[in-house]
Fold this sequence. Notes:
Elements: E1 5-8, E2 11-13, E3 16-18, E4 23-24, E5 28-29, E6 34-36, E7 39-42, E8 46-49, H1 57-68, E9 75-77, H2 83-86, H3 89-95, E10 100-104, H4 105-115, E11 123-126, E12 131-133, E13 138-143, E14 153-157, E15 162-166, H5 186-202, H6 206-217, E16 223-226, H7 236-247, E17 253-261, H8 266-280, E18 286-290, H9 296-305, E19 306-316, E20 319-320, H10 322-333, E21 337-347, H11 353-362, E22 365-369, E23 374-377, H12 382-397
Parallel strand pairs: 8-9, 9-10, 10-11, 15-16, 17-18, 17-19, 19-21, 21-22, 21-23
Antiparallel strand pairs: 1-2, 2-7, 3-6, 4-5, 7-8, 12-13, 13-14, 14-15, 19-20
Helix pairs in contact: 5-9, 6-7, 8-12, 9-10
Amino acid sequence: xxxxxxxxxxxxxxxxxxxxxxxxxxxxxxxxxxxxxxxxxxxxxxxxxxxxxxxxxxxxxxxxxxxxxxxxxxxxxxxxxxxxxxxxxxxxxxxxxxxxxxxxxxxxxxxxxxxxxxxxxxxxxxxxxxxxxxxxxxxxxxxxxxxxxxxxxxxxxxxxxxxxxxxxxxxxxxxxxxxxxxxxxxxxxxxxxxxxxxxxxxxxxxxxxxxxxxxxxxxxxxxxxxxxxxxxxxxxxxxxxxxxxxxxxxxxxxxxxxxxxxxxxxxxxxxxxxxxxxxxxxxxxxxxxxxxxxxxxxxxxxxxxxxxxxxxxxxxxxxxxxxxxxxxxxxxxxxxxxxxxxxxxxxxxxxxxxxxxxxxxxxxxxxxxxxxxxxxxxxxxxxxxxxxxxxxxxxxxx
Length: 398
Ligand SMILES: Cc1cc2nc3c(=O)[nH]c(=O)nc-3n(C[C@H](O)[C@H](O)[C@H](O)COP(=O)(O)O)c2cc1C
Ligand SMILES: [Fe+2]
Ligand SMILES: [Fe+2]
């Protein structure tokens, strides 16, 4: 009756899906919902690894109760204090008053801030490399500051070689019955949402993610159990390789994102024409996005994926068309860098968007703006068409 899942004899999945949520962090669309993972280790001691979002709080408490089968809860490990995981901490303390709470130094200050709870009496503060013996299992804690928040730590089970990775290796989307990533069509159904989750939620903190990857490179890992999305137990190198690329702002592969902001459709026409010309010259992996139709999170994700980016925008009150300005600000906010970029502007009386887009790009690191000034005055002319041909050559050479 309870949707709890046996991972092994002594490790139980007790998380839950929220399929009613429309925007994660009230910002990112999640058409496939969201999973909030929580794990219960049934060793000589019982150990809960993180709680869940309040949206699935009742389900989670029922799951925990059922999985404990009457046993007491000895430890609650808090890896991350963002409310999508920590919301049920006060309820756990009410229901299991003898529980010891395990976290990093910063965790307990945040518990005080969010809930007004002083847990000093029951706190077990972990530093880098500290361990907790729970019976057969030895859990080692590795600090992972800014993957995604400053208090984050991950947990390595030295006995079973499991890495509980907090938000790292998480994904947007609910878990569809299958608990393991290898039971999905990874490239089609999983990786796009693993990428969009990473780039939008953690993408800004590449340096800190690289530091975590360096730590875990030394470990023998049989399973990665994150707080969102399916569990990894095969092809871990595939995910780790994607993470090292994203964290170092290295494109995954050759490809071109053409993002446009267009009011009447003239800039759109130029974007479509450019895509066709690039395709005719043999380029593959071309993605054309109308910024008014797509949430920025999808485009930001593909900007992490591909090596060349084209931004085409009409002018709007002497500024960049707002959806384009928003995308560029988000790219900057997420530390987007190291890409070849082309800019196309449009305006009827005083085109300004090109200059303003270049200004924003100049505030990012190593965004190599191609030497081509394409200014469309209202509608494309034969000269603009020729300029597009020249741009195609620059993009191919970049
Ligand atoms: C609200 C609004 C503000 C605009 N502001 C400017 C402007 O400041 N300078 C300019 O040259 N054109 C401005 N335009 C005109 C468009 O940028 C111009 O017509 C452009 O060619 C539209 O390209 P599109 O067909 O891709 O939308 C504005 C249009 C609108 C609707
Ligand atoms: Fe988070
Ligand atoms: Fe999270």
